[in-house]
Every structure is written in structure tokens, then in C-alpha cells.
Amino acid sequence: MLILRHGEVAGLLAGREKEVIDLVAEAYQRHDEGRTVLPHSVFLRFPDRPRDRIIGLPGYLGASSDGGPGEVAGMKWISSFPGNVAAGHQRASAAVLLNSLENGHPEALIEGSLISAQRTAASAALGSRMLLAGRRPSGITLIGTGVINREVLRFLAVEHPELDSLAVYDTDPDRARRFTADNARLLPGARVRHCTSLDEALAAHDLVSFATTAATPYTGLDACPPGTVVLHVSLRDLTVPAILGSHNVVDDTDHVCREQTSPHLAEQHTGGRDFVDASIGALLRSTARLEPKDGRPLVFSPFGLGVLDLALAGFVRDEAGSGSIGTRVEGFLPAPTP
């Protein structure tokens, strides 16, 4: 069994944002081609702590059809305890277990919080590429200033190196100021604006990323400039009218229309899923097209497919192996039967 700690994972991923975006794009395409097995995520909730949860994401990602990355199988186990933030800890913690496809044995246990954050951010950056369709954004607005939007900012800076303006909004203004002070290097020389209201933030730029801990929808998109691209990473921020008044792209309709996400609530309201225009995999493969009209917002709501974590975890495992990084634990499994 190979064990990779957080620091080792961070070292292996440092400065490799473009490769991670490519891995995520490849995984989306393989999913759209039917080369994945992706059971629904399992949500473990606690009766007396409604904000806390632990999610299990099992999956299988088949090999690329063009000689690219190979097949991988396993599971991500990730907790979200928002109260951790006030105690000085990260909200989420995670582990990824990879299994051998020869004999099913567990073969790698990888600290997964950075893998989860970076695959989420890479997905958002890829969504911005597809929905902007070559248009230069006026800047980026971040709603929520935690770990996820830090990584989103890092990946957007790579995907859109022309970005020179940043607006931030958080219900905790001090947290927002600490965020910009700590992460200004990600957009060197950018103009930074701390917004005092959500509407001010939404009006600031035509590229917006929501990464909050909201459990129920609380905002529309009326304040946004026409054609704003909204990276709806946290999935429960937008009201049903906001979803229905937008062009909607998802990673997987069956997965995102669950667990009281904004698209799930829109499905319950309308009785169908006609409000979904396309999946990101279909856009990447050109089997679907997005034709914006009427200045509507373009909303990307990625549920967060476990195969993205597996693709990135497999990459980290392989890179660790080639560099003799990590800890090998012998005797983890029972000895072979004579």
C-alpha cells in the first residue's frame, strides 16, 4: 500500500495547473463517451448537525481511446464540517483510495483535500473556457473566500492570463480582506475591489464564481451584466427563477439533480430537465452546442464527479511512483493463501 501525505501531494501538483485542467477535460470526455461507471454519491448526514456531512464518491474511469491516461477505480471519502473554519481548520478533509484493476486490492491511500479542491477549480476553469467561448472577461468576482475559491482563482489565472481585476464578497468582510492579502500573488497587479453587498459583487464583472457553504438558495442574477458566466461551484446559491432564466450547463444531469441543489429544485418546480442546455463533456466533444441569446447568464453547475478525483489521484500516484515519493506499507493485506 502506497500512502501519500498532504505535503507530498502538494509538491507533486505544484505549478501543474494546465496539466490538471487537461486531465479534467479528458475525464469529462471519457464520461460523455460512456467510458465510466459512476454510482450516485453517498451522503452521510447527522440528525443533530444538519450542516455537517461526509460524502462517498465511488467510480471507475475507463482508459482513454487515444492512448492517453489509463483506467483507474476507487473512491473519494470527503467530509464537510463548516464549523471547522472558526476553529482554524479547513472546512473539508478527504482521502482517496485507489484499487488495483488486476485483483481489486487497495493499492494507494492519498490525502485528498487538495485533489478535491484542484479538480473542482480545474472544472470551473474549463467551464469558463467553454461558456466564454473566446470572449475576454472583464474580471472575476468571487462569492465566498475559502479554500475552493482560492483554487478557482489560481486556475482561472492560468486559463485567463489576461485577468487584471478581482472583486470579492464574503459575509465575513475580515475574511475577505485576509483572502486578498494572502492570495494577491495569484493575480499580480490586479485591481482588487472589496464589495459590501452581494448585488455590488454580481454587477462588478461578467465572470463570477460561487463557492460558499449555503444550504439553500438565496440569490438571483438580476444584478449581473448581460451574458455573465456563472461558475456555480457550491450548487445551492441560485434561486429557481435564476436557474430557469439562464442557460445551464452541468457535468451530469442525473447527478446534479439531487440533494436539493438549485438544479434539483428547478427540476422539482418544472417537473422536467428541459432547462439544462448541455453537459460540459458534450460541449468538449462538440456533440452539443450552446447558443446564448437575450443576454441571459450562462451558468455552469458541476456536481463534482468522482471520476475527476480518480483521474487526478491516478496521476498523483503515477508521479509519486516515478519519483519514489510516499510511504510504502508492507503487510497491509493478508498474506497469499498457499
Largest sheet: 8 strands, mixed
Number of domains: 2
Query: How many separate helices?
Result: 11
Residues in helix, %: 25-40%
DSSP E strands, number: 16
- Structural category is alpha/beta
Coarse shape = globular
Distance between the termini: 21 Å
Low-confidence stretches: none
CATH class of the largest domain: Alpha Beta
CATH H-level superfamily of the largest domain: NAD(P)-binding Rossmann-like Domain
Mean pLDDT: 93
How much of the sequence lies in strands comes to 15-25%
Short key terms for the protein model shown above:
Rossmann fold; 24% strand; ornithine cyclodeaminase, domain 1; globular; 338 residues; alpha/beta; 2 domains; 34% helix
List the helices and strands and how they pair.
Elements: E1 2-4, H1 6-13, H2 17-32, E2 36-37, E3 42-46, E4 49-61, E5 72-80, E6 92-99, E7 106-111, H3 113-132, E8 140-143, H4 147-159, E9 165-169, H5 173-183, E10 191-194, H6 198-204, E11 207-210, E12 229-232, H7 240-244, E13 247-250, H8 253-256, H9 262-270, E14 276-279, H10 280-284, E15 298-301, H11 306-322, E16 327-328
Parallel strand pairs: 1-7, 8-9, 8-11, 9-10, 11-12, 12-15, 13-14, 13-15
Antiparallel strand pairs: 1-16, 2-4, 3-4, 4-5, 5-6, 6-7
Helix pairs in contact: 2-3, 2-11, 3-4, 3-11
How would you describe this protein?
The chain has 2 domains: 2-115 and 306-328, ornithine cyclodeaminase, domain 1, CATH 3.30.1780; 134-301, 3-Layer(aba) Sandwich (Rossmann fold). Helix content is 34%, strand content 24%. It contains 11 helices and 16 strands. It has helices at 6-13, 17-32, 113-132, 147-159, 173-183, 198-204, 240-244, 253-256, 262-270, 280-284, 306-322; strands at residues 2-4, 36-37, 42-46, 49-61, 72-80, 92-99, 106-111, 140-143, 165-169, 191-194, 207-210, 229-232, 247-250, 276-279, 298-301, 327-328. Strands 1, 2, 3, 4, 5, 6, 7 and 16 form an 8-stranded mixed β-sheet that branches. An 8-stranded parallel β-sheet has the order 10-9-8-11-12-15-13-14, sandwiched between helices. The longest helix is centred in the middle third of the chain and has 20 residues, at 113-132. The model has no long low-confidence stretch (mean pLDDT 93).
